Amino acid sequence: FSISELTVERSRRPSISQPMESKAAASRSPKEQKQLMDPFEADKCFGSSLPWFTPRTISLIHDYAEMEKTPMFYSKTLAAFAQKYPDIELRTLKRFLVARQLDITKASAMLDRNIEFKTTEMKEFDEAQMVSILGEGRKAVLSKMGKALDGTQIIGFRGCLIQKGQDPQEFGRAMAFFVQRIIDDLGPYVEPRLTILSATNKIEGAVNLPARSLMTIFRSVNSVMGDNFPETCQKIVIFPFPFIGRALWKVAKLFVDKKTASKVTLTLTLNTNSNPNTNPHTLNLSLTNNPQP
Q1: pTM exceeding the 0.85 threshold for the entire prediction
Q2: Which of 16, 76, 87, 162 could serve as a FRET partner for 279 with CA atoms 20 to 30 Å apart?
Q3: pLDDT tens-digit profile of 119-130?
Q4: What contacts 47, CB < 8 A, 6 or more positions away?
Q5: CA distance 2 to 140
Q6: What span, in angstroms and rounded, lies between the C-alpha atoms of 250 and 245?
Q7: Do 159 and 214 form a contact (C-beta atoms < 8 A)?
């Protein structure tokens, strides 16, 4: 049977508008923030065990199963946010809440901008436009490179292939399209976790623009990822990164929010358990976790 076909008698059973709460749910403490993204919270809360469903669907299942003694949401903050956005996946709501330190007003403003971005700027954006901006195959600025040993999906980023005169906003839209496609390919039951592997070396025959001329592109990338894919990028590895380049990074950090900057690792080399001649699109990397310079 289909959930949409269920007719549920709603009385005292919990619903989106009547969330059941655990006693420890009231505060917006760091502990609650950690719990929001904790996969083990599924053992404590009915709603958190179904993060790939929308609150509306979770409510239907909860009512149908007559689980009035089992809390649907452990957090008043999450319950209120779910009530406001009943048709967006719970896992997405969690990420936007965490990105704004559980502040519903700020998280709502962020999510509303994301919805507007998808319905306006991305509505007619297609794969052909993405390819025209990012390129394809071995000459693509962005490429899917398999998984790191920590399980995150690796996205290769080669700035040397960015076209001269590239519009930053258009590049941001192309990256958003690319990242969303990767998330869609992962499927609804896999939490999207990404590592961006940014190569700084030049390629013979490529545009090879200097890093300083790409600052507006980098700002656009930071804005697109931060505003539309919160809590998705786990690590940004920049390599090879010579010691002399640290001065440039100090300048670049001024255009990046502190949270994103904390995820950046600068390294001269990458540790790999594979043959160095392995196809980079299928290479599993063990990323060197150097201390932040």
Answers
A1: no
A2: 162
A3: 999 999 999 999
A4: 55, 58, 62, 71, 72, 73, 74, 78, 82, 90
A5: 42
A6: 9
A7: yes
